[in-house]
Amino acid sequence: MHEMAITQSVVDAIVTKLGDAAVTSVRLEIGRLSGVVPDSVRFCFDVLCTGTSLEGARLDIAEPPGRARCRACGDEFTLDDFILLCPCGSADVAVLAGRELRITSVEVGHV
Fold first, then answer.
1. How much is the average pLDDT of 64-69?
2. First vs last Cα of the chain: how many Å apart?
3. Contact indicator for 66, 97 with CB cutoff of 8 Å
């Protein structure tokens, strides 16, 4: 399960950047075309945060849809799955968005 390694990298990056500061929430953006399963990340996050400064932190995940542009007809359209077909029927599309995987914000508790 690659979500475990991805989530470990997220936790490590936050701990490295913020040290012992008590983190209260983390917001991620995981595009629907990224190949990462948000529910698996949620499960892994709870497990991996135990014993760190992120323990008890809330995890919010935004899941932006994919966007593509058809090279045949020029139309831009949304994608919610990995079937890269334009409504015109062409498979010659350029993916514009939906592969994101990033930390968008981290909230630290006030002391």
1. 95
2. 37
3. yes
